[in-house]
Amino acid sequence: SPSSGAPKTSGSSTHESAVTPKTPKRQLSNTNKGNSVTPKRTPKSAVNGSSAKKTISNNSSTKKTTEKRKSRPLEESMEENEENEELPKKKRIRILPLSEDETDDLDKFVDEEDSGDEYVPDKKSLDESESEESPEPSDNDSFIDDESDEESPVKTKGGKNKTSVGKSKSSKSNKSYTPAVDKSIKEVTKGNGVDHDNWPHLKLEFLKPEKIRDANKKSPSDPNYNPRTLYVPEDFKLTLTPGVRQWWELKAQHFDCILFFKVGKFYEMYHMDAVTTAKELNLLYMKGDFAHVGFPETAYGRFSATLVEKGYTVARIEQTETPDMMTERCRRLKKTTKFDKVVRREICRITTKGTRTFGIIDGETNDAENSFLIAISEKEMSSSTSLYGVCFIDTSIGLFHLGQFEDDCHCSRLRTLCAHYPPVQVLFERNKLTVRTKKVIDTMLSSAVKDALIPDTEFWSSSKTLITLAEGDYFKNNDNVVYPENLKTFLGSDSDIQLNANDECEFGIRSLGAVIWYLKRCKMDFQLLSRGRFDIYKPVDIESVELSNQDNINSKHMILDAITLKNLHILENSAGSYTGTLLNKLNHCSTPFGKRLLHQWLCNPLTTISSIEARQNAISSLIVIPDLMHEIRSELASLPDLERLFSRIYSQSSNGVESDHAETRAIYFEEKTYSKRKIIDFISILKGFRTSVHIMEKFQKADIKKESSESNLLTAICNYPNSPTPGVFPYLTDLLDNFENSFDHDEAMKHGRIFPEPGMDDQYDRVLEKIKEVDVELKSYLKEQCKHFGCNVTYFGSDKKRYQLEVPDAASKRAGDGYELQNQRKGFKRFTTHRTKELLEKMTCYEQEKIDVLKDLRERVFSRFCDKFEEWNNAIQCLATLDVFMSLAEYCRCEEEVMCIPKFIPAIVGKKPLVELIEGRYPCGSGGESFIPNDTIIGKEEDGTWNSSLILVTGPNMGGKSTLMRQLGIISVMAHMGCHVPAKSLVLNPVDRIFTRIGANDNIIAGESTFFVELCETSAILHHASRFSLVLVDELGRGTSTYDGTAIASAVVTELVKKQCRTLFSTHYHSLVEDFKVNPLVALGHMACMVENDETNEMDAEQTQETITFLYKFANGACPKSYGFNAARLAGMPADIIKTGLRRSKEFETAAKRRILFKTLFSSNDISVVKTAILAL
């Protein structure tokens, strides 16, 4: 049967082993030795209170039993469950994983290297567990204020029941352990003898590669094929049991996902999902004929994170009803089928690399960097230009960036966007991208997850996007749609309900639609959109305005495109790692949000002189208070990631979760643990903001240098708005006092619930007042009864049998017709009256109301906290800015070399832009490396040597030309960030953009040669460079013939001279030097070296071996040779080849000189020059 290998979960019974199933025994077997090791925990009661023992069985009878044990198809075991009401109940033992604080003596028998989280029952226990009837919640259980470890139904938002199952206090038998598995055992037991290449699911016709179809029966070769769905034949589904059918239906709609299918306390994977997870997570297969693995609920975060990091998509499927709820649902149906009789399961979250939020069940992350999900739409305007719409978001923070722009044939702006905001996942419209855009995605974003969405149905049109926003509850306020301000700029103004996008924003809205569709699929659209955080993205070169002769107070930024960031090693080096980069050098940040801000400062240096000087002064002020800075940095390091933590708390508030989201119905066995984590997170963020207040108040009280305007920026980020010197740091003390004093933190962390103090919550106060009123009525009525009976009367009973009047026998005769005898004990009788019943009913009603209020209280408290988003966010931004300032100050303070504060001079129209770097050193050397200081002066009109705007740089191979260029570029970036720089002095006009053409790079994947890549980079320079740019070109012309390379280099130099931008242009084409050496607009410089000749005799002079000593010093004039044979010698080339090459080189040089002399002879009118040429010839 095709279904023989399918996973089974339930039959037609009203009960299912899904809510609290007995866990199968875990068996460690070694088939080579015929041994069976079955660790087992004995209930505490069986050992008279002693610690639980393990039983290791290793005898012949066990061996025979194991060998005879047959594995039944899971359908059969689940069919037993369908009839479980008729079966005799047997006592089952399910051994569960150890909690983190438990130890187990089994460790001495097994290898400690394995994680031990695998769910590996033997065949018999598997069959038993699948057919075992689940224990159901007791009717007597109730949600009470006391901490309870017993199972308790929890009513969630929307009035739906949610069951939380905890560990019993009364018995240690519920405790569990997780045995590690010896590697040798694992190798034998893995797969349990089943051929991994012949799993039953591989035999299913509709899963064979050539027969796979999507839900619409389209094959993979069809342009409209949807890889996210799978066609599962209806006749196949009719052969399945209800639980198995449920799995296949979910898989058919999420074929691209690995389903983490909740069965009781475990997540289980079947068939192809099991094969993938077993391989990637190193899990053991469960015994049986089909692929089947699993792990406990508590291990979800670790295992899902591993798969997501490897690029997989994980769908978390939870049980959203109990067997009782299932029975009630079936009872309400007019007609039921066997497929109705299975507990409902729903997808609560789909997680990918681009949609991680690091929620309570997901766990934390140590990675401070942003991870962006981006959607790209494109319209080809011409063969050389495209219109792009983009929308990108870091889902762990919740800020949408929306933009639209035109781009050139090299996709320069798109590349820069991807460099500044590196995406980990890309959404694009299927069959709608141009070839050049695909090349960018395939090469620059090679490690990102890529999803091609179907036009219109998945990648929405702008109108469909806006209709969805209008009809949804994302931005509703009192039934009115209130769009965020930044989003309004993208909307058309010709419609009151704003269902049209502006013409210049249409593709940006389309990209937003793609992101919304994807977030809806992942069940997180409301969580992110309802925050209403939108930012308008404009490419940095669109924002750039040519600098004027006056300092502009507007915040403009230097343009650093993707090529420049890569060539200067700003964010990553040529190998793609962090080592040796400017980010690595400057990153002394103490907080994750500070590190993210430093990343943005590096990508967007300032060009406004006043803003740069404000940063310089702030850093200088911090350097002179090292003790206070050390103290503050320690406090900053203690802060959690407040930015991401706020997003997590918002997602748990009543504002951040839809009332009908599957998560509100999910049944967790570790619900109490998760509730405690939520409270701990909330208390953690409160403590973090309290610490931030202490930090800022320390700065307010500190004696920081305040000469002139030196610390205005520090004052701004540290002072309160109502301070004598106003700042922007919000006054948080009253807010924090309100939240900290409103409930007992210790009790809340202990119980996982908030018990409010009086006055904190109106609803809670009202219900307490009602309970108090009933209590007063009860006391008053009791006094009346004491008077009536003439003796002391007390209340007796609990829960629903409370408030029975306990009366002594002697006085009980006074009980009239209105008294109903309930029971009695020696000497006393117990009565109820209409009044006691009435008061009990009122008390019960108000107590239930109190329970309901307490259940939703945490969400309401979180919502109140999130309502103050502006205050909390402003505080985070101030802390991040302070952290970055301290990071830069720490770098400046710890550098052993001379550091200086760059001096910026306003640009003046008509005057050459200047950069004068004296004794500058390369900033990004590895530890222990020292660099020779060098002067680099361009455009200094008072200096006759370096008054040109372009310097032709020559020098020997490996002499330091590229390092000199990177040094100037990196120091310029640091200067514009406001940082001190490693130099004796630096004077410059602001730079609007840095262009680089450094290093030899090809792009094999995109089919681009080294020469083509060089020309693309050079083309961008010629098209976009202004006179205020800094241009660094290293050895242009490689990869083609000498003549072609020289000609192109010469033409580029000529054009750059015309632009008058500050330029370093290195070359090995010495004919190029000859052409420009007399040009007054071009200066010559070289990297100096010392040459020693090993001359044997005059006859062998042509074959001289030259020994080069690099001086790494930038000097005036041209270098006569490139000394390439020295590099050949260092590379270990054979000596005879080097000598032959030297001889040929001499011949080429002689011929070249003769050509130059002939040209001079016939072109010069100067008789002395002609005579010199004749003599030379």
Automatic annotation (TrEMBL):
Keyword Zinc recorded: no
Pfam families for the chain: MutS_I (PF01624), MutS_II (PF05188), MutS_III (PF05192), MutS_IV (PF05190), MutS_V (PF00488)
Compositional bias of kind Basic and acidic residues: 183-196
Start and end residues of each stretch annotated as Disordered: 1-196
Composition bias type Polar residues, residue spans: 1-17, 26-49
Keyword Cytoplasm found: no
Keywords in alphabetical order: ATP-binding, DNA damage, DNA repair, DNA-binding, Nucleotide-binding
Biased composition (Acidic residues): 76-85, 99-119, 128-151
SMART domains: MUTSac (SM00534), MUTSd (SM00533)
Family: Belongs to the DNA mismatch repair MutS family.
Biological function: Component of the post-replicative DNA mismatch repair system (MMR).
Protein's name in the database: DNA mismatch repair protein Msh6-like
Species of origin: Aphis craccivora
Lineage start: Eukaryota, Metazoa, Ecdysozoa, Arthropoda, Hexapoda
